[in-house]
Structures are given as C-alpha cells and as structure tokens.
Amino acid sequence: SQQGEEDPQALSIQEGENATMNCSYKTSINNLQWYRQNSGRGLVHLILIRSNEREKHSGRLRVTLDTSKKSSSLLITASRAADTASYFCVAGNGANSKLTFGKGITLSVRP
Amino acid sequence: EAGVAQSPRYKIIEKRQSVAFWCNPISGHATLYWYQQILGQGPKLLIQFQNNGVVDDSQLPKDRFSAERLKGVDSTLKIQPAKLEDSAVYLCASSLGGLNQPQHFGDGTRLSIL
C-alpha cells in the first residue's frame, strides 16, 4: 500500500455541520480505505472504495474517489460529538494487504 | 462477533526491562498484524503473519523485538530490552486476508518506558 496524505491536519466544526476530509495519493491504486480512531481506542474500518467506483455511501458517510486526480474525500453529514476522532486514509495498490498510515486528520465536533 | 482482544491495556516498565503483549484475533482470520503507534502519528506496521508464517517483518527492530504466532491463532510481541523510544501504543489487527478485506483492530496496549 501507499501512504495517503490527509488534508486538513485538523478540523473543528459545530455539531450538526458537515465535515469534509480529503486524501491524496501518488501512484495508481486498487482500493482506498478510510479508518477512524477514537481517543484511546483502536482503529475502526469505515469504508472501502475500489478503483472502479466513484462514490460510496454508508449511513452518514459519503466517500468519493477521483482516480484522475488521485484523490478521495470523506464527507460526514450532520456531525455528532461522537464523531470526534482521528481519521486515516490508506491507498491499496493491489500488491499485498499491507496498510501504510499517514498522520491522519483530527476532527473535533463541538457540542 | 467478538473483536480483537489485547492484553494488557497498560504497561509501565523501566528501560532495559522486557515486556510481552498478547493478541487474540477474530476467529477465522488468517492474517494478523502488529503495529506501533507513537503519539500524534499513524500506526506503523511491525510484522504481518499469514496463519503462523511471517509475511512482512521489514520494519521490526529484530535486535530487540520478536513476535510469534503459534498454531496460527494467538500472537505475542516481545521487546527485550526496552528503550525509551519504544514508548507507544502497540496495536494488533486481524483480517480474513486478501487485498480488499478490512483490518479489525484491538484497542492496543499503551507502553510507557521510564
């Protein structure tokens, strides 16, 4: 896999607002995954989007993938305080199942 | 389904001592991973097992770290002797294996070296 570059590094929003997080990568991919990590906990897999998909939804999450721009975005709608966490994107190149994590995005949702 | 279990949750030792972490993956998951996560950074893969064989240990400091996965189920990660820079959270993850399978993480062991 290759490391995704997440942007912004930190994001603070009010409860109920939408949060958009971006990820860019360098070489061609097989899939892209997003993970969430709450403070003091392990990572939780949120969603996987394959290279031949453009958009995917899961509950309040919407992920898009633009392979021409080598970028992905994660949208969380109607954010809640419980969404406060670090979010990581990981790009899989299809060679193996190894994941290479970047520093992630710290999302703070204010009540 | 039960998640990935890790113990202990916290460990405090002095430098040059040894320490061991234990992981029980999700039943049926062939692939097991150990990660090191230093504060403020993303997890870094230390070692990956497929059943009881090592697939990737390129980032494991083999002079002090060792890991095993006997019988292809539980795994232990050991550090001997510990250094100050080993202070981190050690995460275990498991997956069914394959390219598009998500990894499932335990809550980790937070190691503090005095």
Summarize this structure as a short list of keywords or feature phrases.
heterodimer, A: 111 residues, mainly beta, Immunoglobulin-like, six-stranded mixed beta sheet, five-stranded antiparallel beta sheet, globular, B: 114 residues, 11 strands, 0% helix
Gist?
The complex is a heterodimer of chains A (111) and B (114). By secondary structure, chain A is an all-beta fold.
The quaternary organization reads as heterodimer
User: Helical percent range of chain B?
Assistant: under 10%
Low-confidence stretches of chain B: none
Q: State the shape of chain B.
A: globular
Our estimate of the beta-strand percent of chain B is over 45%
Going by CATH, what is the homologous superfamily of chain B?
A: Immunoglobulins
- CA(first)-CA(last) distance of chain B: 37 Å
Mean pLDDT of chain B: 94
CATH class (first level) name of chain B: Mainly Beta
Helix/strand-derived class of chain A? mainly beta
- Computed CA radius of gyration of chain A, to the nearest angstrom: 13 Å
Describe this structure in words.
Chain A is an all-beta fold and 111 residues long. Chain A has a single domain, classed as Sandwich (Immunoglobulin-like). Chain A is built from no helices and eleven strands. In chain A, a hairpin with a 5-residue loop joins strand 5 and strand 6. The radius of gyration of chain A is 13 Å and the shape is globular. Chain B has 114 residues and is mostly beta strands. Chain B has one domain: Sandwich (Immunoglobulin-like). In chain B, the strands form two sheets. In chain B, strands 2, 4, 5, 6, 9, 10 and 11 form a seven-stranded mixed β-sheet that branches. In chain B, 35% of the residues are buried. The mean pLDDT of chain B is 94. Chains A and B meet through strand 6 of A and strand 5, strand 9 and strand 10 of B.
